[in-house]
């Protein structure tokens, strides 16, 4: 009986040790990936492009992933995909808020088609991370690759 009790005591100790080792291993892997891709995730190339492509003080409607680049450039920001229906947003941004630019990574979406229906848009420039000194990384937010349009009035 003593041998069985001894084995159970070791198992109670072994399970937390194995869980801790697995936890530290996964955390280590996560930090390895983050540090390994740090330069690729750096948005400074996008920020520099925004400074050159859009004049300060302009109003920009954009995908969520461009929020910080727009704000850091001294621009006004409105979300492309949030608030009301697609039609309501397109009309509001074009007629009431009088947006100057639209920045999106997806020109094939239903939302973009709605904006094209309610506003005259002219393609100004395409942002390609690789052409601006950055790597085109696909992550949770997707690539920074996008298209900059001007609202024409």
- Return the string of H and E elements: HHHEHEHEHEE
Q: Give a short account of the largest sheet.
A: 5 strands, mixed
Q: Please estimate the helix content.
A: 40-55%
Which regions have little confidence, pLDDT < 50, spanning 5+ residues? none
**How widely separated are the two ends?**
89 Å
* Secondary-structure class: alpha/beta
Cα radius of gyration in angstroms: 24 Å
Mean pLDDT: 86
Q: What is the overall number of helices?
A: 6
Shape: elongated
* Beta-strand content bin: 15-25%
Strand order of the largest sheet: 2-1-3-5-4
Number of strands: 5
Explain the layout of strands and helices.
Elements: H1 2-36, H2 38-41, H3 44-53, E1 59-62, H4 67-72, E2 76-79, H5 86-96, E3 101-104, H6 110-118, E4 120-127, E5 146-152
Parallel strand pairs: 1-2, 1-3
Antiparallel strand pairs: 3-5, 4-5
Which characteristics define this entry?
alpha/beta; 6 helices; 153 residues
Structure overview:
The protein is of the alpha/beta class and 153 residues long. 49% of the residues lie in helices and 18% in strands. The chain has 6 helices and 5 strands. It has helices at residues 2-36, 38-41, 44-53, 67-72, 86-96, 110-118, and strands at 59-62, 76-79, 101-104, 120-127, 146-152. Strands 2-1-3-5-4 form a 5-stranded mixed beta sheet, with helices on both faces. The longest helix has 35 residues, at 2-36. The protein starts with a helix and ends with a strand. The model has no long low-confidence stretch (mean pLDDT 86).
